[in-house]
Amino acid sequence: MTAPACGLAAVDHVQLAAPPGSEDALRTFYADALGMTEIPKPPVLAARGGCWFAAGPVQLHLGIEEDFRPAKKAHPGLRVTGIEAYAARLESHGVPVTWDDNLPGHRRFYAHDPAGNRLEFLEPDA
């Protein structure tokens, strides 16, 4: 009998950290600016603070870290459609975007959430 095939199937979610008391600012950014929907955390995890968001199959979990410091380089890469309009949406919410043309075959920009987490937004060239 052969063993069943095993391996990675997908990324379930990305966890980012945030400082204590930042949940309201995170909700404004992830729900209003990014257009994600807040999803409920299981009660045992909700007691720890933070908040979770989803958009289609994409989930971002923001967990509270007492001694939080945003990473300078680490970031999730989020695939978007209509990247120019998406950048304009963020800018209309007061979120600065920084375009980067260094990834062949893609348009991309970076932005930071209220906690200072770096986020990459990208769309393959048509």
UniProtKB/TrEMBL annotation:
Domain of life of the organism encoding this protein: Bacteria
PROSITE patterns xref list: VOC (PS51819)
One Pfam family from the record: Glyoxalase
Every VOC domain range: 10-124
Name of the protein in question: Glyoxalase
Native species: Streptomyces parvus
